[in-house]
Structure formats: structure tokens, C-alpha cells
Design a protein that fits this description.
Chain lengths: 184, 577
Amino acid sequence: METEYTINVFSENYIGLLNRLTIIFTKRKINIESITASESHIDGIHCYTIVVNTSEILVRKVVQQIEKLVDVMKAFYYVRDQIIYQEIALYKVPTEVLTSTNEIEKLVRQYNARILEVTPEYTVIEKTGHKVETQELLNELKPYNLLEFIRSGRVAITKPMKELTVHLKEKEMAFNYTNHKRSK
Amino acid sequence: MGTITQKRVFNKVTSPVQVSGAEAMMLSLIEEGVDIIFGYPGGAIMPVYDALYDYRDKIRHILVRHEQGVAHAAEGFAKVSGRVGVCLVTSGPGSTNMITGLADAMIDSMPMVCISGQVGSPLLGSDAFQETDVMGISMPVTKWNYQITSAEEIPEAMAKAFYIATTGRPGPVMIDITKDAQFGTLDFKYEKCTKLRSYFPYPKVKKEDIKAAAILINNSKKPLLLVGHGILISDAQNELEKLVTKAEIPVASTLLGLSAFPSRHPLYVGLLGMHGNYGPNVKTNECDVLIAVGMRFDDRITGNLNTYAKQATIIHIEIDPAEINKNVEIDVAVNADAKDALYALLPLIKNNKHTEWLESFKKYEQEEYEKVIKKNINPASGQIKMDEVVHMISEKTKGGAIVVTDVGQNQMVAARNYKFAEPNSWVTSGGLGTMGFGLPAANGAKIAMPDREVIAFTGDGGFQMTMQELGTIAQSKIVVKIVLLNNSFLGMVRQWQEMFFEKRYSFTEMDNPDFIALAGAFGIPGRKVTNREVLKDAVDEMLASKEAFLLEVVVGKEDNVFPMIPVGESVSNVRLE
Ligand SMILES: Cc1ncc(C[n+]2csc(CCOP(=O)(O)OP(=O)(O)O)c2C)c(N)n1
């Protein structure tokens, strides 16, 4: 059964790593619904947030294979109710529709969106929320000669309280970096 | 070799020396203990080759005939010696020709460091002459790769490359170095890499996992242990033998695990998988505890997963956590280096006897012998069989040779019939099944182990994929013995056509050249055998030869390899005919 999973990958910030990550999905023909890269709360550690629809079995295998990458420290996967997440959407409409009707203004209020910029030609509206919400507003705005629309990848904060540094400490304790002390 | 005009003696204790990037590559290799490399020059790697000219007394370079041969030779070298196979190639076609070898090394866990030249960094991305995106193209088939664009990066990048290639589950690493980085200068100071904060190569053995495994093994009435490549990589042959002897556990081997356990050991029950032995395949579905060590449950081993060892409790000892629960559901996972895990397990294992269980393998052995082996190794009449050739060579070398194979029937027959007496004696392309692997890999193996007999079994098809490596043999005087089992067919594919495609032999018949004349053109002696009476004499001649030798044996055109588990079928449905 397909479920939406949010994968968090903590890694070094190296050229090419994104490519290595996506290869793992490509190999299994899993489509990446959204991807966001940013710094994390720890200096020098990078975080990728990847959203996919797949089965639990596959997401587990994929995450194991991600974590195996030399430059990846730790990877996790979550279902929706384990995370707080948001996406941001921007909409560009002709300013004319804003002035000729008050529908746009109503929608902005109704959807808790906000107007970022108004010029004589166009107006940019911003809405932050889950995809369904930004999608609904998109559908509402379409009849008003919508000029442009863009939605960001997902960003997510996890609910579990265990901190990344604790995970990393545990991992460090569970492994050796060389096999010098190996049994003879 | 001419005299060496300028030689730099590098001394660790003194302060760093100013050198070129190209020379720093040499010094880095020396720091890593490298004294043999395989390569092929070209424009974008010329500065490194120029530096190599001054280091010929420290680093032996083997000039191959095609970059695929660079990679496979490095694999053969690595496989029998446990050392890193080092490759040196140029940009563009040089590095793309390496890709098959990288993919082969990746799937078979071979430690390899490949250095490829690249166009100057200002030209990167401009489709310059002989530019390819080596980073992108090698990414799916390397454990790690890195592009060096300035000379100062060299020592650290090289140290990381060697550390990553050799530790944990080994694999190939690609280092792409731009031409300006080779020409640039740096203060050379080398520090070996011993740790990366994001890389965890050696899991510590967890006591609770070992205890759980021990309880299962001690209570087992019908245990079966599967050895994989991991035993050889971690050098765990002794620990393995002690453990199985103590608990009296029958041992079966994967294709890549061959030679980890002596073929003639009383506890050895044979080869697993598609063309493996009857007993161990069938018994996989009868044992109560299955102990898999350093292997990854490849589909050629398991057949249909839905019917694989369902009755058994499965213990998986494996260093790569991503392999655990990947194909087969595991009951007790021991995520650890094989040697560490077996060493920890040994004191908890009770002395045991499984006489009846062991005895039960005999029946299958006997049946396989009667129905398959006997007529293949001692045929009464008809054309020579591949099996009798391998069997004869196995007997004459007392199982002491290093056996290298190509891919196809020749590979399966060699795996089935050579009786290994020593570890690290088997070199084959397992995971990728790369035709053309055999000859160059044999060259690498012989260069690593000049004192051992190296015998390459190959088919007429695979041989022709990399036969230009005869040139390498001639130039570098590599004493390999090549046994070309000629059936004038792409035999393994023909067998499938016969069995599953109504004998529709679609493009599998081969019109072959005069192989002996071909070898002769390279100055390599050879002999062609078509009838049984002279086979022994020809084998003796080959084994006695002090130089490389090509023995071509004409075998039955339409002989098949049995037993066989057809694709997608259960291991219990292994067919004997
Ligand atoms: C590079 C490559 N191409 C194609 C194949 C598919 N293939 C597997 S076995 C085989 C036949 C090999 O024929 P030959 O080398 O004559 O050996 P034989 O099976 O007759 O011993 C082929 C074509 C392969 N494994 N590798």
C-alpha cells in the first residue's frame, strides 16, 4: 500500500550528494514528490527533506541505502502525523482583477493568505500551508487569469524529541572507524 | 627501462616538500603502500604519467590494452591479495571504458581506487575535447567519488579514497583530477585517513545479537551455514572452520564465497544457487536454522523468495546494514564484520553432533553424482565435456591454483568442478556477470600472486570480448594459463534458448577465429585439443609451461549445465536434467 513518507537526510554539504540521493530513488523507480535542501540546526550539517509515495517496506530499504552513503550521517522516515510540515506557495494575478472585483481580497482573507507585492500590473499573493490548502487556493484563483504559480518543497519538523546529536552519538558508539582492534 | 634521471626521496619526517600535483599523486600512492598500478595513458592524464616515469622503480605500471581491462585486472589483483586495485586512465573515453569494471567492482565489493584525468578546470562543463561528466556517470557504480580541481586537495582526497575503498564493505572509488590540478603545485604532506564523521564502516558486535544467534545454533537439529564473499574479505576462514567443526554444521557456499571453505572438507556440502549442487539447494528448504555469513541473498542464490527457507529461522551475519532484510526477512540480524561476529560467537557455541542431518546430504550428493557429475567428468565417449577439463585440472593442481573465470557455462562448470584447497583462489564476476572479465582479471591475479598458478577458464564468446589483453600478457610477461572451452556458441544463452525458447537459436552461434594462431601472433604458445586421448597430455603441457599458454579445448556444442534452478522457481525445484 502506498503512503506518503517524509524522509529527512542529514549529511555533509558536498557537491554531487544530491545526485547520489536521487539515484537511489531512480533505481527503484520511485518518484520524488518534493525535495528541499537546507542547512540544519547543527553547523556544517545539511538536511534534505524528501517526500515520496511508496510502501513502508520500500521506504525502509531506501532509507537504509541512503544512510549507507559515505557522506550521509543519518536518515529517517516519517508518516504525516509524526511531523509538523509546511509548504509555501506564491500566486501572481493581474492587479486589474484585484481592483475590478473584491473576490480576490475575499479569498486572501478566507485562506489566510497575504499579499506580498502590488504593482500597477501584477499582484503577488503568498500562502503557507499544506499542499491541499495551497492547491485549493490555486483552484480558486485560476478563473481570475492567474499568471504564475509556484509551490516550494516540503519543510518538516519532527515531533519525536530525540535530538540528532543524540542519534549521532549513539551511532558513533555503535561503530568503529577502523578494524585495528579486530579479533585475530 | 631507461635510467631514472631525477628521483625525489620523500621523507615523512622532514618538512613538506613543494611538488607538482602529478608528483603528489605518485607520493600519495606510495604513502598508501601501492607498488603496482594498471593503466592506459591519454591527454588529460599525461602529467601524472610523466611523474610516473620518475617513479618506475617504486611503482610498477602494467599497460593494458583497453580500459575495461584496467578495471578487471585491478579487480583480479584485489580479489586474490586483499589489496587495493589501483587504476589510472585518461578522461572521456578512457574513463567511460572503465565504467563496466566499476559496476562489476561495486556489486562484488572490490576495493579499487581509479584515477581518471579530466580536462582543465576552466573548461569543465564546456564539452571540451574528451570531457565527460565522469562524476555523474560513475556515481551509481562507485562507493564514493571526488573531483580534484586544485593540487592542494590531492593528499586529503587520495587518503579518503583509500580509506573508503578498503574499509567496511569495500568498493570502488573514482578520483577525477583536472589537468590544471596535475600541473599545479603544493606543499606535500600526507596523513592517512582513519575516520570520517559521516561514515561508519565497522559495526561493533552486539552481545545480545550474538547470544540470540548462539541459542538458535545450539538448539538447532538441522543447521545449515551459507558462506559468502564476506568471509574472505574479513579473513574469517579460521573462525568459520572452528565454529562449524565445533557445532558440526554443514557448510554451503555462494558463488563468490568459493574457496573460503575447503571444497574437500567433510562438512562442505557444495555450491548454492542456480547451477549449484543439489543437496544444499534442496536442504535450504529443510534446515531449521539457516546461518548466512557475509552474503546478500542474491536472486541467483535464492530463486523464488516466496518459497525460500520459509521453514527456517534465519541468522544473517552481515557488515552492510542495508543488506539486512533487503531480500529475505531475518530473525536474528548480526550487523557486524564476519570475523568479529564469528569470533564472538565461538565461545558460546556448544560442541554438537548432527550425524543424521549430515548423513541426509549424502543421498542428494549420490543422486547428483549418478545423474550429472559422473557422466560429465568421466564420459565414456563423445566430445570432450567442460566438466572433465576442469576436473582434470583440479586434480592435477591438487586444488591449489587460483581459478579465474569468464561468464557463462565455463564459469558455472569451473565453480562446480574445481575443488579448492586454499582460500582467496577464486576470481569471478558474480553480481554483474560481466563477459570479458576473465582474461584481464587473470592478469591482475597473477601479478598480485606471481608464485601461484593462475588458470583462466573462458568461453569462446567472452574471450573475444577482451582478447586484446593477450597483448598485455605478452608485454608484461604474465604467466597465466588460459583454458578456452570452445563450444562455438554463446553457450549459456543457447542453453536457455534450448530450455525455455523452443531451441530457437537466435544469434548465439559463433564463427570463430583460429585462436591458437591468434595467441601465436602475440608470441603466446598454445594448443588445440579436439579429442579426449590427448587432453591429459595437453593439460600437462600447459601446466608445465614456464610462460603464458592458451589451451583451446573443443567441447560439445550443445552441452548443458545441470543442475539448474529455472529463474523464478523455488530452490527445491532444482532440476537434474
Ligand atoms: C557483457 C555481456 N554481454 C552479454 C552477456 C549475456 N551472456 C551471459 S552468458 C553468455 C554466453 C557466454 O558465451 P561464451 O563466452 O561462449 O561462454 P559459454 O557459456 O559457452 O561457456 C552471454 C552472451 C553477459 N553476461 N555479459
